[in-house]
TrEMBL record:
GO cellular component, one term: nucleus
Superkingdom of the organism of origin: Eukaryota
Domain Importin N-terminal span(s) in chain numbering: 34-100
Pfam families the record matches: CRM1_C, CRM1_repeat_2, CRM1_repeat_3, IBN_N, Xpo1
Protein name per Swiss-Prot or TrEMBL: Exportin-1
Transmembrane intervals: none
Lineage, uppermost ranks: Eukaryota, Fungi, Dikarya, Ascomycota, Saccharomycotina
Subcellular location: Nucleus
Organism of derivation: Naumovozyma dairenensis (strain ATCC 10597 / BCRC 20456 / CBS 421 / NBRC 0211 / NRRL Y-12639)
Keywords: mRNA transport, Nucleus, Protein transport, Transport
Major place of residence: nucleus
GO MF term list: nuclear export signal receptor activity; small GTPase binding
Length: 1050
């Protein structure tokens, strides 16, 4: 491949173009070679000096993009090292390039992407040069705009980028001092910028220039003083533009909406400014009057009927009405209210989800506010003195009731599918299959529809929502009216409003639907129709368990029907099991204590049905049923009956488990049979399902199988250790055995976490468990070590760690020795074990730090090395745990008297923690939370300056600890960043130490210094008085806008 540079050191642009072309279009080794050449070229410190030649001679836009990226990198990192002449040269070159791209209309359009990249590069220069070294930038920009329309359009775009950079993007990328300086500069020149925008709107007829100017104005409206908005011709110009210039209507409406959104201070100008807002509204109303003709699709017939305009119009109406609806009501402007609300209603069939979501947002606000008034009215209605307020309330509700009734009807007819409803898909002509399909966009709309419908249902006494449900449901009972889509929408809508109607009304409506659905299902011959009816019976039953609870016979029938559905309809099994669980969760007390009056009889019936369903159900659904039955048993108050019911429930699982253990005892090689392993896994899952809901009541069942669990665990370990001999299916066998081990440990974790008797856990279960899993874990090969062992021990430490401190110390020693050796050799392959180990250490530090303090001296070093590994780990999840751990440990050490543990930390690891914390903070590859990093550094420095470090850090014993720590940190910084001068480091440390007790300011000083470190020869002192400068600026600033939230950000 041809070289990029010639022998005389000049750039070979043709060769560069060919290499770039190969990189983007080539394949294989040639492409890889091109990438290496380009990467090398971009990293060369002199490569930026060829930019002008590349831009001028290159025929490849991608090459020009790459050259501008090189220039960006130079500006960001080396700008302060360049001589003034070179800075001016780059500035002038870039300005010239931008102007040349704007001189010709065709070129302007053809190179739009490159031009925008150049504009962004110019913004990077401005952040360094403006206003101190380029104070005439804004005047130059406005003068140049008179050259061509394209120059003008690009210049307003540059001003937009400048505002976005300062107020939206820069807070994350530059220091607080520089940000404050830029905000002050742009606020000082806002008058000139604003007048420039106004002059364009007054004089330019080009729609594209007007659009670009309006987009920039929209940016500035977020922060400019209010007098520029309300005391100038801006509003009139925007109103004129929205009426007369169709191409700019969407963006102009957004500008007007932004003005409407501004909170007007209640001062002497309040009424005048409020009247300007109403003037804007009147303009929009007149537009609707003159052009609004709804068509069949629900779209709005306007001169500019594209969806962008519709979205802007709907956004405007929504924003204005939410803010000023009460003003229109108080002023008696009924016609305007009617027009806007009708407009929103007639937009009901818009296909664009974002538009429909905006419409729903407005109706939610209206219905919510009426609900608040309704609640107030309920309290006032008993007081005859408040009749005036009562009358006003009725007038307001009567005005909106037709709109809200029609809205409710629209939602009821078009309700989106709830997330919990499964989709029945016609896979082919003979088979229906169940799929869980979650559409994020549809679900968002469903949640909004649900909220709106709940608010309107709460107003049922005025809106008569019930009537809509009855009418729509009755219409289904004809051959012409029947529709699965309509049926689903109706039932999903009804499922959205439990507890919103009056209790008796709700019960009657629900029973009407359930009886009707039952009749439909019996009459319909088509399987899809039957499934639709039955799935909606299940859905409504799950949504209204309390209403069902009032009719004990019906509740009993629903429960029995659920099991019939499981047996008859494979497609509905998951939904039926979930419905059973939801009903049990809400009605468990009544199911046990009311139905039949005999818990034993009821549970026997349910368990009998459950056992009949096991052969036809997926195992996950079997577990849901067992989990639900366990929940029912917890409601039995009689201890003897509860134990009997537990025996009934566990009869089938115990039989399966007994068969499993017997076969394993007779011949443990049966575990090599894949079908048998599946039986073992499912048996463990059934036990876990019951334990999950019965908790402490599971003690007897758990105690019975506990020895067998440990025996099975030991057997699986033995097989894993032998790597399953020479069996052909080794990989699947290994996987299944590890899953069985995990299932055993999960069951143990589950019971221990649910138990209310920590002393029983310690006395009965801990020792046998430790003997089994720890010995086996130590003997296993690295690949066979099960991370769930660490999770199990984490649960134990969290639950009973304080009762077994000595054992926890021994366990910590054990894992530090055998797991750390494995992780030390290979971080990547054992990431799950590493993560679990840190969670275990975290629980130990949190629950029983004394166990950590009692570690033998030989293990203390291993312990701290682990924490250091974690904070250096490139994976953010590990690093986050590492910093959290380090912060807990250093905080604990800070509060302790001297111990062997603390002395070892100070002597051998304190400085290493300081070093690695700085290393991570200055490494862009690490992505952990900066908050945690700064807290750790603050904790570490505080140890020295609070005189907690009793050993001498300086091995030469020449400096005290405070002086040595200063020297040590200074050395770290100067070694990594040679361009930083000693005085700058000293000033930084002084500022840092002043704020040692204030975490937020400490973090800000640290953050700003680290940002400046990445720029060669940056001013590393300009952040030191930023708090006082910021306070002084905004106390004395003449800007009217209150609050100046955008100016005070960050």
């Amino acid at each position: 491949m041809e070289r990029i540079t010639n022998n005389d050191g000049s750039i070979n642009v043709n060769a560069l173009d060919q290499i770039v072309d190969t990189f983007y279009k080539g394949t294989g080794p040639e492409q890889e070679e091109a990438q290496i050449i380009l990467d090398t070229f971009q990293k060369e410190p002199y490569s930026w000096s060829f930019i002008d030649k590349i831009i001028q001679d290159s025929k490849n836009d991608q090459t020009k993009f790459i050259s501008l990226s090189i220039l960006d990198n130079t500006i960001q990192k080396q700008w302060n090292t360049l001589p003034i002449e070179q800075k001016l040269g780059i500035r002038n070159f870039l300005v010239g390039m931008i102007r040349s791209l704007c001189q010709d209309k065709n070129r302007f359009r053809a190179t739009k992407g490159l031009l925008q990249k150049a504009d962004l590069t110019l913004i990077d220069i401005l952040k360094h040069e403006w206003p101190d070294h380029w104070d005439d930038f804004i005047p130059e920009l406005t003068v140049l705009s008179s050259q061509t329309l394209e120059v003008c359009q690009n210049n307003v775009y540059i001003l937009r980028l400048l505002s976005e950079e300062i107020f939206d993007l820069a807070p994350k990328r530059i220091t607080q001092a520089k940000l404050l300086h830029l905000k002050e500069a742009i606020s000082n020149q806002v008058d000139q910028i604003f007048q420039y925008f106004i002059s364009i709107l007054e004089s330019t007829i080009s729609p594209s220039v007007r659009r670009a100017t309006s987009e920039s104005i929209l940016c500035y409206l977020q922060w400019i003083p209010l007098n520029y908005i309300y005391e100038t011709e801006l509003i009139e110009l925007l109103i004129s533009q929205v009426v007369t210039v169709a191409e700019t209507r969407p963006i102009t409406l957004k500008c007007l909406m932004s003005i409407i959104e501004i909170d007007i201070p209640e001062d002497d100008f309040y009424n005048e400014r409020k009247s300007r807002a109403l003037q804007i509204f009147d303009t929009v109303i007149n537009m609707i009057k003159s052009s609004h003709v709804p068509n069949k699709s629900g779209l709005l017939n306007t001169n500019d009927s594209d969806e962008v305009f519709q979205e802007s119009m709907i956004d405007f109406i929504k924003t204005f009405l939410i803010k000023y609806r009460s003003t229109l009501e108080n002023d008696g402007r009924r016609q305007e209210l009617e027009i806007t609300h009708q407009y929103l209603l007639e937009s009901k069939n818009i296909s664009e989800p974002e538009l429909f979501r905006n419409i729903l947002e407005y109706w939610k606000d209206l219905a919510f506010k009426l609900n608040i008034l309704s609640d107030q009215h309920r309290m006032l209605v008993k007081d005859p003195v408040m009749s005036a307020e009562e009358s006003a309330f009725y007038q307001k509700v009567s005005f909106y009731q037709n709109y809200l009734s029609e809205l409710s009807s629209i939602i009821i007819d078009n309700m989106e599918k709830p997330e919990e409803v499964v989709s029945i898909i016609d896979e082919d002509e003979d088979e229906l299959i169940t799929k869980i399909i979650v559409d994020g966009e549809e679900n968002e709309i469903y949640l909004l529809e649900k909220e709106v419908l709940r608010y309107t249902a709460n107003l049922d006494r005025f809106l008569n929502i019930q009537k809509i449900f009855y009418q729509e449901f009755t219409s289904l009972d004809t051959s012409e009216g029947w529709s699965i889509t309509k049926l689903n929408s109706l039932c999903w809508a009804l499922g959205a409003i439990p507890k919103c109607l009056e209790y008796e009304d709700e019960r009657k409506l629900l029973l009407t639907f359930l009886e009707g659905l039952s009749n439909f299902s019996m009459r319909k011959a088509d399987k899809k129709d039957k499934i639709a009816c039955i799935s909606n019976i299940l859905y409504l039953s799950s949504r209204y368990p309390k209403s069902l609870n009032s009719d004990k016979v019906r509740l009993e029938n629903i429960i029995i029907d659920i099991f019939k559905i499981i047996k008859a309809f494979t497609e509905l099994q998951s939904m039926a099991c979930d419905t059973f669980m939801k009903i049990v969760q809400q009605c468990k007390y009544d199911l046990i204590n009311s139905i039949w009056g005999e818990p034993l009889l009821f549970m026997k019936t349910i368990i009998g049905e459950l056992e009949q369903c096991i052969p036809v159900l997926e195992h996950d659904n079997v577990n849901i049923l067992y989990e639900s039955c366990g929940l029912l048993i917890t409601e039995v108050k009689n201890a003897i009956e509860k134990e009997q019911l537990m025996e009934f429930l566990m009869a089938k699982p115990k039989a399966i488990w007994g068969e499993v253990t017997l076969k394993v005892q007779n011949d443990f090689s049966i575990l090599l049979d894949s079908r048998f392993r599946k039986v073992v896994m499912h048996s463990l899952q059934m036990y876990s399902a019951v334990c999950k809901t019965t908790g402490p009541d599971f003690f007897y069942q758990f105690q019975l199988i506990y020895p067998q669990l440990l025996q099975l665990y030991a057997l699986t370990t033995s097989i894993l250790r032998n790597k399953c001999g020479s069996i052909a299916s080794g990989i699947s066998t290994l996987h299944d055995l590890l899953v069985i081990q995990k299932g055993i440990l999960k069951l143990i974790e589950l019971y221990i976490s649910k138990s209310k008797s920590p002393h029983v856990i310690v006395n009965k279960f801990i020792n046998p468990l430790f003997e089994t899993i720890l010995n086996d874990y130590k003997k296993e090969d690295a690949e066979m070590k099960n991370p769930e062992v660490l999770n199990c021990l984490t649960v134990i430490v969290t639950k009973v760690g304080s009762l077994i401190q000595e054992k926890v110390t021994l366990i910590l020693e054990f894992f530090l020795e055998c797991t750390v050796e494995m992780i030390d050799k290979n971080f990547d392959d054992y990431s799950e074990i590493q993560h679990c180990l840190y969670e275990f250490i975290n629980a130990t530090v949190k629950e029983t730090f004394q166990s950590v303090l009692e570690l033998p001296e030989s293990y203390v070093g291993i312990f701290f090395k682990n924490i250091l590994w974690a904070i250096q780990d490139p994976r953010s999840e590990i690093q986050d745990i590492g910093f959290q751990l380090a912060n807990k440990i250093t905080s604990n050490i800070h509060s302790l008297e001297n111990t062997t543990f603390t002395l070892q930390f100070y002597k051998y690891y304190y400085l290493e923690f300081v070093c690695q914390t700085f290393s991570v903070m200055t490494d862009t590859c690490h992505q952990s939370e900066f908050v945690e990093q700064s807290i750790l550094l603050m904790n570490l420095i505080s140890m020295v300056f609070d005189n907690k470090v009793v050993i001498q850090l300086d091995s030469n014993k020449l400096l005290g600890n405070e002086g040595y720590l200063r020297k040590f940190i200074s050395s770290l910084i100067s070694s990594a960043f040679p361009h930083v001068e000693d005085i700058e480091i000293t000033n930084f440390l002084n500022s840092l130490l002043v704020h040692l007790k204030d975490p937020s300011i400490f973090r800000r000083v640290l953050r700003d210094f680290l940002i400046q470190l990445k720029e060669s020869h940056a001013d590393l002192n300009n952040y030191l008085d930023v708090e006082q400068r910021e306070k002084t600026l905004w106390q004395s600033h003449k800007l009217e806008r209150q609050p100046i939230s955008r100016l005070e950000d960050n």
